[in-house]
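pls design
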């Protein structure tokens, strides 16, 4: 049963879109981080320049630093975003020299400024600020003491720069994504085109066109095309076998039916009751032969076309004994010596009961037909470490070694014409063996007759 799943084209496009989206989000995140770093580097440089400008304006009077805030320092921090600027100057002892706001500068930040410039993000009056602090040695006439300069401004200019950089990055990503989507769609369509060609080629064929495919495909579809060619080859071989079988079956059915017709015509021309009785006997014989042939044809067709039956666990010994007992009670077996040879304990295998019964029925029927009266026929089960064997053998005249490989072919009678058999018994046995993944062995028995054996492989045993 075919289960229709999601379109392969859609699946490929969704996977490629998902991969593109994941990498795109990663790139946008990396672009945002880079934009933030670039904005911080740019505006931190402005803070650095402003603090140095303030440092150059420091004067000393009476041993104390004084500073008149230079307008150049404020102009440096002036941006189109109208940043608010804050500053604070602390003396050597931490006293405030001048400030325009009480900035939240911690002791840790002040200690860190001893070693070099310090940059940090702070919040003042619910406003996020970027602050830079540094310590400089301010030389006066009477003293040389370090002072700390802290300059801060709002983040409007930084955020505006980050947005501008991100808008450009997002625009590039959108253009790239659209271009990638178009290229991916074209690539998927081109890549799946060979499948479409194969589909059209198969749909255009007639039911009896089983030639190998003549199509150019990429390397990845090579195995698929090879598998299709092999399937077509098997279908052609199966079709040829079927045609030969139908022809042979028609020929085999034609012979008894022609005999029935000629016998009945002769009887109709006669007025003698004895002739009518003899004709009825021959018609009955021919009808029985035709019925058996039809039955075996149906059995062979059932074996060849039933592949959905479940295997069950069964006892070979019990099945073989039951078939043997049934045949012992038949009139055709009265002139023969039928026996069983096998273990007393069960031998369990996974199999289909009616098929094994067909195997035994046809093997026993063959043995009874092709052996003289008083012949011994044995049904047996043999177990070894590697396999289990179900067999039927007789002590009749047997078959020439050169003809043994042909016995499993339909309508094969080992060259004999003096028999009422249909030539399908061992062909049915071969089909049973194939269905059970077993081996059919047709050999000469040790006593000179014929042995038909079914060898079950280890995976069928329990």
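designed seq:
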């Amino acid at each position: 049963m075919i289960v229709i799943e999601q379109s392969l084209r859609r699946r490929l496009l969704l996977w490629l879109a998902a991969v593109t989206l994941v990498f795109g989000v990663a790139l946008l995140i990396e672009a945002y981080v880079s934009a933030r770093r670039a904005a911080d580097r740019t505006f931190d440089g402005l803070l650095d320049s402003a603090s140095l400008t303030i440092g150059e304006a420091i004067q000393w009077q009476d041993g104390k630093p004084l500073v008149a805030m230079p307008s150049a320092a404020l102009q440096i921090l002036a941006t189109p975003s109208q940043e608010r600027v804050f500053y604070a100057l602390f003396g050597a002892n931490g006293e405030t020299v001048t400030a325009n706001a009480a900035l939240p500068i911690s002791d840790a930040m002040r200690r860190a400024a001893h070693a070099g410039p310090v940059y940090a993000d702070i919040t003042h009056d619910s406003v996020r600020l970027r602050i830079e602090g540094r310590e400089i040695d301010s030389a006066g006439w009477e003293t040389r003491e370090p002072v700390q300069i802290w300059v801060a401004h709002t983040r409007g200019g930084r955020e505006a720069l980050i947005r501008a950089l991100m808008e450009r990055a997002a625009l590039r990503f959108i253009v790239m994504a659209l271009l990638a989507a178009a290229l991916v769609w074209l690539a998927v369509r081109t890549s799946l085109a060979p499948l479409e060609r194969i589909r059209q080629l198969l749909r255009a064929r007639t039911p009896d066109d089983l030639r190998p495919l003549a199509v150019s495909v990429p390397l990845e579809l090579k195995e698929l095309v090879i598998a299709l060619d092999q399937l077509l080859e098997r279908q052609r071989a199966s079709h040829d076998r079927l045609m030969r079988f139908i022809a042979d079956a028609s020929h085999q059915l034609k012979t008894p039916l022609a005999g029935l017709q000629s016998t009945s015509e002769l009887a109709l021309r006669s007025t003698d009751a004895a002739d009518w009785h003899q004709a009825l006997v021959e018609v009955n014989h021919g009808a029985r032969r035709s019925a058996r042939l039809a039955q075996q044809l149906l059995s062979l067709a059932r074996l060849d076309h039933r592949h959905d039956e479940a295997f069950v666990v069964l006892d070979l010994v019990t099945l073989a004994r039951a078939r043997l007992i049934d045949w012992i009670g038949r009139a055709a077996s009265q002139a023969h010596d039928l026996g069983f040879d096998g273990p007393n304990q069960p031998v369990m295998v996974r199999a289909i009961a009616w098929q094994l019964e067909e195997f035994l029925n046809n093997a026993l029927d063959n043995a009874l037909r092709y052996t003289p009266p008083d012949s011994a026929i044995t049904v047996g089960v043999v177990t070894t470490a590697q396999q289990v064997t179900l067999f039927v053998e007789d002590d009749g005249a047997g078959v020439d070694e050169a003809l043994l490989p042909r016995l499993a072919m339909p309508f094969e009678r080992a060259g004999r014409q003096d028999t009422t058999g249909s030539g399908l018994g061992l062909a049915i046995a071969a089909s049973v063996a194939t269905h059970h993944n077993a081996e059919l062995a047709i050999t000469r028995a040790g006593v000179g007759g014929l042995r038909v054996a079914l060898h079950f492989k280890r995976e069928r045993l329990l």
